[in-house]
Amino acid sequence: MRETYHIEIIGPEDAPVQRASIRSTGLDAARERALRLFRRARVPQRSGPAAEAVRIVDGAGTEVFRWSVWDEGTGPARGRG
């Protein structure tokens, strides 16, 4: 069964700078998409506020994944709970 996930790219002071909603059969696919969007939001050519984190919120409004610039280089991305 497909679920709706909301991906938010977070800038300074926890302000969302980009949002996307996707329908996916699982959190793994949503996580891959979120990390791709996050990498794209951090390219040097991009204008606007710097992306500092990405989070995924499920259809019920619960944050199920978060990844930040401080997590980079510490191993594979892992979701919460």
Structural features, described:
The structure is a single chain. With about 80 residues, this protein is α+β, with helices and mostly antiparallel strands. Strands 2-1-3-4 form a 4-stranded antiparallel sheet, covered by helices on one side. Strand 3 and strand 4 form a beta hairpin. The protein is globular.
Q: Which helices and strands occur, and which strands form pairs?
A:
Blueprint: E1 3-10, E2 16-24, H1 27-41, E3 53-58, E4 63-68
Antiparallel strand pairs: 1-2, 1-3, 3-4
Q: Looking at the structure, what is the overall shape? A: globular
How many whole angstroms does the radius of gyration measure? 12 Å
Uncertain stretches of 5 or more adjacent residues: none
Give the SSE order as H and E letters. EEHEE
Q: Can you list the strand order of the major beta sheet?
A: 2-1-3-4
Short note summarizing the structure:
With 81 residues, the protein is of the alpha+beta class. It has one helix spanning 27-41, and strands at 3-10, 16-24, 53-58, 63-68.
Task: Looking at this protein, list some descriptive labels.
single chain; 81 residues; alpha+beta; 4-stranded antiparallel sheet; 1 helix; globular
